[in-house]
Request: fold
Amino acid sequence: MRDEGELRELIRKLLAGQPLAVLATHGEGGAHASLVAFAVTDDLSRLLLATPRATRKFENLASEPRVALLVDNRANRESDFREAAAATVFGSVEEVPEEERERSLALYLGRHAHLREFVASPTTALLRVNVGKYSVVTRFQEVMELRVGS
Reply:
């Protein structure tokens, strides 16, 4: 097992190495999974993502803000069973408040500059995930948790 500092560093490296996550939402139509581009704050307490408002994921998030996001570094090889790491991020989503939008947008675009036009559209929502905890799996079965929210 790793201490908290080592676990935080493992999570930082994993998130930094992957531009996309799988976002799991739930709504009236059931569960839904989507690929999303994300950015994370230095303290790991928030993830940022953007989505058009006219999507199933946004509709689901409006009715049920609790989410899970999966980020992993698999290579789709047999060695993944020994070497891959995956983090599930558990939290709740809200639209970034106007007073924090500029700073959040800078962080998001610092990672995804190619999405500038997409996030500038009035039909796109900039969202933040307030992280409650990370569940990290390495070596296929070594599970560790890091709580960051209340």
